[in-house]
Write a structure and sequence with these properties.
The structure is a single chain. This protein is an all-alpha fold. 92% of the residues lie in helices and 0% in strands. The longest helix is centred in the middle third of the chain and has 55 residues, at 5-59. It is rod-shaped and about 90 Å long. The chain crosses the membrane at residues 6-25. Keywords: Coiled coil, Membrane, Transmembrane, Transmembrane helix. Residues 30-57 form a coiled coil.
Length: 60
């Protein structure tokens, strides 16, 4: 029994909408990871500055 054309079209549209939503969610997750990475980089920079200060204090 063949699938009616309307049902086939509906399935294709649902697959396209699902793929688009998947890509949107995936991009949002990557942006969130980038924000976390930026925060970690800031913390690392702050720690490096503290290490430099401590080294200078030890040299004195």
């Amino acid at each position: 029994m063949p699938i009616p054309p309307d049902v086939g079209t509906a399935i294709i549209w649902l697959l396209l909408i699902g793929a688009i939503l998947y890509l949107i969610v995936r991009c949002q997750n990557h942006e969130g990871e980038k924000l976390k990475n930026d925060e970690l980089l800031e913390e690392i920079r702050a720690l490096k500055e503290e290490i430099k200060k401590l080294r200078e204090e030890l040299k004195e």
